[in-house]
Write a structure and sequence with these properties.
Strand order of the largest sheet: 6-7-9-8-10-13
Largest sheet: 6 strands, mixed
CATH topology of the largest domain: Aminopeptidase
Radius of gyration: 20 Å
Number of helices: 13
Order of helices and strands: EHEHEEHEHHHHHEEEHEHEEHEHEEH
Distance between the termini: 60 Å
Shape: globular
CATH superfamily of the largest domain: Zn peptidases
Structural class: alpha/beta
Length: about 425
């Protein structure tokens, strides 16, 4: 049964946005279909229509102001993690199975999120053992925390019109994507790597910023994915440097890429380095990347998500492993990698539904994992604000995540030379 809610006036919505988080959705799409946990939907006052619900998830229809409200609700801290949401508008518009009423269509669609099926492109058969210590340790010596810091300084620089934001619906977001792609291409050229290819994946018709995909190696074996999201919220109301969310993860990914590309190593399996667009708007960019991989029949062995790697709460060096919407065996392997190579404390925490791009891979049945900067709830309190700057971040913490990402890539991609 549809449950309809009275819409807020435009004036009150404008006031609400200015008081909380101001995010201007792209004008081309006025209707959004969202999958979210009920605990998140319960935080919305109005301005949505429930299409279907289950014990854990709800399918709603809303508009750009509703997206603003969801982002605000997502960022509210609570004792029990709730998580985020997925914008599934395009998937919903394409979903028209025969013989279903509209309400049954909604229920059937939502079932695909509450009970995701394994996808044939997920070929993982790794027993997750430590095999290549010599090669990993060789590369770990080349990781340079200052490189991460220098790149992040540029990537989160809001001065002189550099990046007032990296919002997916803005020219700034496009500029950020171009900078990442060019930096990788220059890096490959400088290291005479002819086996490095790049491409972009459009983020539907809603957002200007594409996701950036890099392939290291020419193999068509099931690959290893390491990614983070490049986008921030919109800077219409205040600057959005996004140094931690997710500049830290993006530049940690960049350091992993630099380490691998400059190593001269070749691998049995390809390594995919990815920067996703529009994560803040409901994991939109990663959903298109997963769709692109499916359409191109690109098999994937394992996925690592790096979203916020820079804030060490009270200087705690612990790497925290997210336990929901991930593969438990791969997550256990991350703990082994941390203990073997990074040698800092490691613990587990829960973040709730769809809290980052790993959820797009997990929903599609791929083997995904997500290490995080702090226990959920003790992470960076300044994200989504103008205060999300480098002053509160730790070089050594980001370097530890770069070590983990490098070890993950080398062990699972299997060096051949």
């Amino acid at each position: 049964m549809l449950r309809k809610h009275k819409k807020l006036s435009l004036l009150s919505l404008g006031l609400l946005s200015s008081i909380s988080l101001a995010v201007q959705a792209a004008p081309a799409a006025q209707t959004h279909v969202i999958v979210a946990p009920q605990c998140l939907v319960d935080k919305l006052a109005d301005n949505y229509t429930t299409l279907s619900s289950s014990e854990s998830l709800t399918l709603i229809e809303t508009n750009p102001a509703g997206i603003d409200a969801l982002i605000t609700a997502k960022n509210q801290r609570s004792a029990i993690p709730c998580g985020g949401f997925m914008d599934v508008t395009d998937a919903w518009n394409e979903y028209h199975p025969k013989g279903l009423t509209e309400s049954n269509r909604a229920q059937s669609f939502l079932n695909g999120y509450t009970h995701p099926k394994k996808h044939l492109l997920n070929k993982s058969s790794n027993n997750y053992s430590i095999k290549y210590q010599n090669q990993v340790n060789q590369l770990l010596k080349t990781i340079n925390p200052q490189d991460i810091w220098t790149d992040l300084t540029h990537f989160s620089d809001t001065s002189k019109g550099q990046f007032p934001d990296r919002y997916a619906g803005s020219d700034n977001g496009v500029k950020a994507a171009q900078w990442l792609k060019t930096k990788i291409e220059d890096m490959a050229k400088a290291n005479n790597r002819t086996d490095v290819t790049t491409w972009t994946v459009a983020t539907g018709t809603q957002y200007k910023q594409p996701s950036v995909v890099v392939k290291i190696g020419n193999s068509n074996e099931p690959g290893v994915v390491i990614g983070g999201h490049m986008d921030t919220l919109n800077s219409s109301w205040e600057l959005k440097p996004g140094a931690d969310d997710d500049g830290s993860g993006s530049m940690t990914v960049m350091e992993v890429a630099r380490t691998l590309i400059s190593s001269g190593m070749n691998f049995k399996k390809p390594i995919y380095i990815i920067w996703y667009s529009a994560e803040e708007m409901g994991l939109v960019g990663s959903s298109y990347v997963v769709k692109d991989f499916k359409n191109k029949n690109i098999p994937v062995d394992a996925v690592l998500q790096l979203d916020m790697t820079g804030y060490a709460n009270q200087n705690d060096p612990t790497i925290w492993l997210i336990t929901d919407n991930v593969n438990k065996d791969l997550t256990a392997y991350l703990k082994t990698l941390v203990n073997t190579y990074v040698k800092v404390p490691v613990s587990e925490t829960r973040c709730g539904y769809a809290c980052s791009d790993h959820a797009s891979w997990d929903k599609a049945g791929f083997t995904a994992s997500f290490p995080f900067e702090a226990k959920f709830g003790n992470d960076d309190p300044y994200i989504h604000t103008a205060q999300d700057t480098m002053e509160v971040l730790s070089q050594s913490h980001m370097a530890d995540f770069a070590k983990l990402g490098t070890a993950f890539a080398v062990e699972l991609a299997e060096p051949t030379a």
